From TrEMBL, chains A, B:
InterPro entries per record: Glutathione-S-Trfase_C-like (IPR010987), Glutathione-S-Trfase_C_sf (IPR036282), Glutathione_S-Trfase (IPR040079), Glutathione_S-Trfase_N (IPR004045), GST_C (IPR004046), Thioredoxin-like_sf (IPR036249)
One protein family per Pfam: GST_C
Organism lineage string: Bacteria, Pseudomonadati, Pseudomonadota, Alphaproteobacteria, Hyphomicrobiales
Residue stretches making up the GST N-terminal domain: 1-81
Domain GST C-terminal, residue spans: 83-201
Segments traversing the membrane: none
Keywords from the named record: Transferase
MF terms in GO: transferase activity
Name of the protein: Glutathione S-transferase domain-containing protein
Originating organism: Tepidicaulis marinus
CDD domains cross-referenced by the UniProt entry: GST_N_4
Length: 201, 201
């Protein structure tokens, strides 16, 4: 399988981490989002929504959306719970990640640490709004992790991979994780999983 | 099962429509989001993220996130494809809905048509930004529907329900669907499905 990838994108990292932990080799094609390479006609023919990650299967089908790719790779492996309710809880946290977490924590990181000169293009009030909503998401995670070691099924699943990707890099967006003791302990548990790789790997 | 519900929320409507089409009875508990009833201690104990829809199972477990609830209700029914890749494509469009569609199309509708006086609380530039991103999402849908009748597996699935909920009500947020011919034909196909119910039902 082939992954259209931007290396410092947390959404792409999720896919690399999942594939590595499952022992699935990926042919990596790097795409420069900052140079608008996801907006070319060639790329848009593969993903009309113009984003990475994008998975290409061996028979030439395309699958975008990081968490849908995770589900595709992880189904029927230990990374997805067998129980229907627990499987839905895993998806619950993956939808939470895309709706309540990524748009603030990943977006703040993009403008502060990924896009050159990005900090000068955003207002103080915009950054403050991202920080407020991002801290709300971290607060919800902290509350949950005070009672359980992982997000779903009481074990390491795709939900942990999805939430780890941008949470562990939240500092790049100006988030201080010091107050989130349970979140920090969970980050360490994720990093201690067999075959963990870093975003840079 | 019990559904904590706000009747004019598209996210809640998705769940009512899915349950009705599957013949699953739901005990509906209406929650007034505008009166902050999702922010009380009692409600936050059920869903720390303070949102509806929220599903309560017969044995007292809670499941938030509309699209995770849809997956829980729909798994192993005709609303979810049996093929692994098609199931992932269904999820792809459900993640697209929550990331690229709902935050613009549903949010514009909320401020223009749901929250009393909401129009006066938002700026022209904020509304224009929602309209720009919302039209991008509608454009991606239009392009896809020019080649296929439904979003995944070439048949009616949870992805259609998830995207129908706010697309059919996009006019409430100031979106004109006239230019989206394929989208309008798809809306009619969704409405022609057996046991379809409207948001008001």
């Amino acid at each position: 399988m082939r992954l259209y990838n931007m290396h410092n994108s947390g959404n792409c990292y999720k896919v690399r981490l999942t594939a590595h932990q499952l022992g699935l080799p990926l042919d990596i094609v790097n795409v420069d989002v900052l140079a608008q390479e996801t907006r070319t006609g060639t790329f848009l023919a593969k993903n009309p929504n113009g984003r990475v990650p994008l998975l290409e299967t061996d028979d030439g089908r395309f699958l975008p959306e990081s968490n849908a790719i995770l589900f595709y790779l992880g189904e029927n492996t230990p990374l997805v719970p067998e129980d229907a309710f627990e499987r839905a809880q895993m998806l619950q946290w993956m939808f939470f990640e895309q709706y309540s977490h990524e748009p603030y924590i990943a977006v703040a990181r993009f403008w502060l640490s990924i896009k050159p000169g990005g900090r000068d293009e955003i207002s103080e009030s915009q950054l403050a709004a991202w920080h407020e909503r991002g801290h709300q998401a971290l607060g919800v995670m902290e509350k949950h992790l005070m009672y359980t070691d992982f997000f779903a099924a009481n074990r390491y699943t795709l939900a942990d991979i999805a939430l780890y990707a941008y949470t562990h890099a939240a500092g790049d967006g100006g988030f201080d994780l010091a107050p989130y003791e349970a979140v920090r302990a969970w980050l360490a548990r994720v990093e201690a999983q067999p075959r963990h790789i870093t975003m840079k790997a």
